[in-house]
Amino acid sequence: MPARPPVLIDLKFNPEGIARILKTAFPDRGSINLADPAAKSRDLSAIDYALLWKPDADLFERAQNLKVIFSGGAGVDSFMNLSGLPDVPIVRFVDSSLTVRMSEWVVLQCLMHLRRQREHDRHQRDRIWSQMAPPEAAEITVGVMGLGVLGQDAVRKLKIMGFNVIGWSRSRKRLDGIKTFDASELDIFLSKTDFLVGLLPLTPETTGLYDARLFAKLHRGGALGKPVFINAGRGRSQVQRDIVAAIESGVLGGASLDVFEVEPLPAEDPLWGLECVFITPHDAAISEENALFRHVEAQIARYERGEPLEFVVDRKAGY
């Protein structure tokens, strides 16, 4: 039986951890890790499968005979615009570990804004004993934009916590016990939303979507008075100067951001200095490497058995 071509790995995160795990991953075929300097000159023309996240710009010129491309994350925007992208199936990373981590982050942020955690933090620093009586979760409507695997799980978890939850997606999704809206009903959706949660993929339509005009359409006069913006989708979906301006002018009462237009977030960015903003360094749902490699192995096995791949990207939709 001829040797199987190795899996090509080009992942621009956690290089030490990936190198360690790759020692035992893909035991039937091995791998080529482009983070290894010795691999930079390797002939990639016989490679069938590639696992990518922010790959080298010339990757598709070197690996011209790929059969399947796997994304190292839930999104695929890190390589969709690279020159030479072949017309082959592209598979997103979908795994319970990533989904659970994202829902944990979303619920955490909603609860911190609900329970006015920043004020408690300030009181603790100043050694002030000052009790507060925040509203209950049921008094807050959380609107989730993006109802894929991550969004649907977040909606369920928020519902369990007692929030009133609604959802929006380009085409309407039917979810038990959740009022949903489609693209034609965006303004209606926004007008009902106290906490706006962004879990949308990055497409031409979503680039710059979260801007001043959108924030102005959110529900005002709710239990906390001002709406809150929470984004763990994609940084380029938001206009950061508009977030700053909306908070400084009182249009938004706060924000939680895990993604940014430029990453790492520059030290001089005004978002750092806004007390009502929670910032996390794009780690709301980091891909767990063991789970990622198991996912790729399982999908390769399906493909080679002649079974349909799962979680294939719709290229027209961009996700």
Automatic annotation (TrEMBL):
Coiled coil region boundaries: none
Protein name (Swiss-Prot/TrEMBL): Bifunctional glyoxylate/hydroxypyruvate reductase A 1
UniProt GO molecular function: glyoxylate reductase (NADPH) activity; hydroxypyruvate reductase [NAD(P)H] activity; NAD binding
Originating organism: Rhizobium gallicum bv. gallicum R602sp
Claim: NAD is one of the keywords in the record: yes
Domain D-isomer specific 2-hydroxyacid dehydrogenase NAD-binding residues, every copy: 109-282
Family annotation (SUPFAM superfamilies): Formate/glycerate dehydrogenase catalytic domain-like (SSF52283), NAD(P)-binding Rossmann-fold domains (SSF51735)
EC number of this enzyme: 1.1.1.79, 1.1.1.81
A Pfam cross-reference name: 2-Hacid_dh_C
Keyword NAD: yes
CDD domains membership: GDH_like_2
Name of the gene this protein is made from: ghrA-1
InterPro entries associated with the record: D-isomer_DH_NAD-bd, NAD(P)-bd_dom_sf
